[in-house]
C-alpha cells in the first residue's frame, strides 16, 4: 500500500480559509494542499475489474478522465462504464477524454457491458458516454440498449446513466427515460458565465432544461458541479438554485484538477470546510442528497445515493 499526491500541472500549497470566498483567485503553481493525498491499493477486486474490462474490450471513465478515486472505487467493486467509444466529438477545456472523429458504433457493446456487470456481480451500475454529436440521436439508443441488457441479465442491479445533452433532442432523452434508469444524471459542470469558454459546444440553459424534462418524465435526476475553474461561490450557489428550480434531486460538487498542461489551469483550491458548507446550503435548498468534497466526482458513492431513493 502506498500514497500519492494527485499531480495536476498547476497546484497550490496554501490552505484556504474556512469561510467561503466570494471571488476567484489567480491560477496557482505550487504544491497541492495536504488534503489531496490518495491511498493507492490494488487488491483482488481492483484486478478483477481491470481483467473483466480488458477481456470484454470495454472502457471506463475512471481511466479516461484520470479519476483520483479509481483505486477506492475499484476496490469496492464499483466502476463507471464508458460507452460509445473513447473519442469525444466535443472539446471541453477541463476534460482529458480524447477529442476527434469517433469510430463506428459498436452494436455489441451494450451486451458486453451487461455481461461485465453480471461477471462482477454489481449491485449498482453507472453508465456514461462520450458525446457523439454526429449521430442522429446522440447515442441515446445505445444507452437504452445497454440498460435493457442489464435489466434482462441482472434484474436486481440498479442503474444510473450519466448522459450528454443530446443537443437538446427531446426524443433522444425520452428513449433513455423509457428504459427507466434508477437515476438520470447530466452534469452541468460549471457556472453560467464560464460555460461558453469552458464548454463551448454546450449550452448552460439547455442542460438545465434537459434535467427539467427528465424530471417531468418521472426520473430521479442528478447533476454535478466542478469548482476551481474561475467561478465565484455566489455563481456556484446560482447553479444550485437553477438545478433546484427544475427539481433536481441529487448533486455532486468536487474540485477541478488540471489533467495535463494543455488543459485549463486551476484557478484555486477550495478548502474541505468550504465543500462542507456548500453541502449544507444544498440540503437547505431541498436536494435529497449532496455529495461534496475535494475528491468528489459524479459517480463517487453512487450506490449509496441510489439506495437512499
Description:
It is a single chain. Helix content is 34%, strand content 16%. With 309 residues, the chain is an alpha/beta fold. It has one domain (2-14, 34-307): TIM Barrel (Alpha-Beta Barrel). The strands form three sheets. Strands 3-4-7-8-9-10-11-12 form an eight-stranded mixed β-sheet. A two-stranded antiparallel sheet has the order 1-2. Helix 9 links the parallel strand 10 and strand 11. It is globular. It starts with a strand and ends with a helix. It is found in: Cytoplasm. Its main location: cytoplasm.
Blueprint (SSEs and pairs):
Blueprint: E1 2-5, E2 37-40, H1 44-55, E3 59-60, H2 61-64, H3 70-75, E4 80-83, E5 87-88, E6 98-99, H4 109-120, E7 124-129, H5 140-153, E8 158-162, H6 170-177, E9 183-185, H7 195-198, H8 204-216, E10 221-227, H9 233-245, E11 250-255, H10 272-285, E12 289-292, H11 302-307
Parallel strand pairs: 4-7, 5-6, 7-8, 8-9, 9-10, 10-11, 11-12
Antiparallel strand pairs: 1-2, 3-4
Keywords: 4Fe-4S, Cytoplasm, Iron, Iron-sulfur, Metal-binding, S-adenosyl-L-methionine, Transferase
EC number: 2.8.1.8
GO molecular function: 4 iron, 4 sulfur cluster binding; lipoate synthase activity; metal ion binding
Structural class: alpha/beta
Residue share in helix: 25-40%
> What percent strand?
15-25%
Rounded to an integer, what's the Rg over CA atoms?
18 Å
- Discrete helix count: 11
In total, the number of domains comes to 1
Tell me about the largest β-sheet.
8 strands, mixed
- Stretches with pLDDT under 50, minimum 5 residues: 1-30
Mean pLDDT comes to 83
What is the ordering of alpha helices and beta strands? EEHEHHEEEHEHEHEHHEHEHEH
Based on CA inertia axes, which overall geometry fits? globular
Please, what is the CATH homologous superfamily? Answer: Aldolase class I
CATH T-level topology: TIM Barrel
Strands of the biggest beta sheet: in what spatial order?
A: 3-4-7-8-9-10-11-12
Per CATH, the class reads: Alpha Beta
Number of strands: 12
Subcellular location: Cytoplasm
InterPro entries: Aldolase_TIM, Elp3/MiaA/NifB-like_rSAM, LIAS_N, Lipoyl_synth, rSAM, rSAM_sf
Biased composition (Low complexity): 16-33
Keywords: 4Fe-4S, Cytoplasm, Iron, Iron-sulfur, Metal-binding, S-adenosyl-L-methionine, Transferase
Amino acid at each position: 500500500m502506498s500514497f500519492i499526491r494527485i499531480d495536476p500541472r498547476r497546484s497550490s500549497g496554501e490552505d484556504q480559509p474556512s469561510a467561503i470566498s466570494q471571488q476567484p483567485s489567480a491560477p496557482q503553481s505550487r504544491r497541492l494542499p495536504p488534503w489531496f493525498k490518495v491511498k493507492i491499493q490494488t487488491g483482488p477486486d481492483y484486478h478483477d475489474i481491470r481483467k473483466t474490462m480488458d477481456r470484454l474490450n470495454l472502457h471506463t471513465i475512471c481511466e479516461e478522465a484520470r479519476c483520483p478515486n479509481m483505486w477506492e472505487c475499484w476496490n469496492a467493486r464499483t466502476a463507471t462504464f464508458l460507452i460509445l467509444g473513447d473519442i469525444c466529438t466535443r472539446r471541453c477545456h477541463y476534460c482529458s477524454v480524447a477529442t476527434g472523429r469517433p469510430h463506428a458504433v459498436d452494436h455489441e457493446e451494450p451486451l458486453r457491458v451487461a455481461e461485465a456487470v453480471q461477471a462482477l456481480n454489481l449491485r449498482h451500475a453507472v453508465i456514461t458516454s462520450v458525446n457523439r454529436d454526429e449521430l442522429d440521436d446522440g447515442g441515446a439508443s445505445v444507452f437504452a440498449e445497454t440498460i435493457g441488457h442489464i435489466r434482462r441479465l441482472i434484474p436486481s442491479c440498479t442503474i444510473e446513466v450519466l448522459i450528454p445533452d443530446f443537443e437538446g433532442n427531446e426524443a433522444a432523452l425520452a428513449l433513455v427515460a423509457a428504459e427507466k434508469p434508477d437515476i438520470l444524471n447530466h452534469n452541468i459542470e460549471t457556472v453560467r458565465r464560464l460555460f461558453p469558454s469552458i464548454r463551448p459546444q454546450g449550452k448552460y440553459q439547455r442542460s438545465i432544461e434537459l434535467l427539467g424534462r427528465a424530471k417531468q418524465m418521472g426520473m430521479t435526476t442528478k447533476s454535478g458541479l466542478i469548482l476551481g475553474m474561475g467561478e465565484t461561490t455566489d455563481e456556484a450557489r446560482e447553479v444550485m438554485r437553477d438545478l433546484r428550480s427544475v427539481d433536481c434531486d441529487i448533486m455532486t460538487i468536487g474540485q477541478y484538477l488540471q489533467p495535463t498542461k494543455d488543459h485549463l489551469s486551476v484557478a484555486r483550491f477550495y478548502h474541505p470546510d468550504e465543500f462542507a458548507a456548500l453541502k449544507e446550503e444544498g440540503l437547505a435548498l431541498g436536494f435529497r442528497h449532496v455529495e461534496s468534497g475535494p475528491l468528489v466526482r459524479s459517480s463517487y458513492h453512487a450506490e449509496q445515493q441510489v439506495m437512499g431513493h
